[in-house]
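From: lab user (bench 3)
To: helpdesk
Subject: output format question, protein + fe (iii) ion

Hello, I'm new to running complex predictions and I'm not sure whether the block I got back is the full result or only part of it. Here's what I submitted:
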Amino acid sequence: MPGARGAGPELLLRSMRSMPRPTIDLHSHSSVSDGTETPTQLVRAAIAAGLDTLAITDHDSTAGWDEAVAAAAGSGLQIIRGMELSTRYEWRSVHVLGYLFDPHDADLVAETGRIRDDRLTRAERMVSRISEDYDVTWDDVLAQSGGVSIGRPHIADALVARGIVRTRSEAFESILHFRAGYYLPHAAPTVLDGVRIIASAGGAPVIAHPATRGRDAVIDEGMLEQLVDAGLVGLEVDHRENTSEGRATLREWARRYDLVMTGSSDYHGDGKPNRLAENTTDPESLEAIVACTRGVAPVRA
Ligand code: AMP
Ligand code: FE
Ligand code: FE
Ligand code: ZN
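Helpdesk reply: Thanks, we reran it on our side. This is the complete output you should expect:
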């Protein structure tokens, strides 16, 4: 083989090492859910940040996909079409990222529709409780939402607009905290069903920020085994809300169950301090994710 002996391969390796690695961020939100930027603004921010690849992963909705793809056209930015599906495990809320699934899959369309409908009635009921103690109305909240996938962040924005709290974070630490007396859960499938729905729609399911609750990960190893059997592809290891002990456990599990490890920002525009590319995913890991999918393809135009 030419170049297999002598200085050739060494030079090649050296130049490969100095080649910049593509910056890949697989978790971001637009105003379709609780990000503060439209899909177009989100894509522009990703281009400005020098990303090679961005996944748009709004909560329980694919409504931002087409706009994001159109906004990236001609820029060279690769768009991975995804979603962050709300699920439950016992009393806990578990978020499952799904990548490159068929957005028209009947089960997926039905389940995400149910979640979004219940998000709406749940938010309205929370606001009616809050309005007994604070001067805020349902119309204030609707004015803050893109109208597709509503959640506590939009209630937070209404409380900020009314001057009741200063920031989203302050709202979450006080009025919107699940122990504050106004909190209501919304309907969501079990995490096992969530993983099945994404996998059978041809997507790659990855558990989002699985280690945010101290030493104990949100899911235990018994449940993880069931999720792996149901088609789980990966774990989001590098995320600002995962603890360092939690990340070590996740790395161990990834080795043991042959799962892909990702790292991502979970960018929400101005809605959270998370910055694009503050955590990133290896190109090899993205390749492994794409290889598991048969819904839609990555787009780079
Ligand atoms: P919900 O799904 O309606 O219960 O709201 C949860 C959402 O609120 C998550 O998607 C987070 O992105 C967002 N969130 C949680 N905590 C905070 C916080 N401290 N500041 C801003 N957003 C938050
Ligand atoms: Fe969010
Ligand atoms: Fe999440
Ligand atoms: Zn997220």
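A quick orientation on your result: The beta strands are 24-25, 53-56, 78-89, 92-99, 204-207, 234-238, 260-263, 299-300. Let us know if anything else is unclear.
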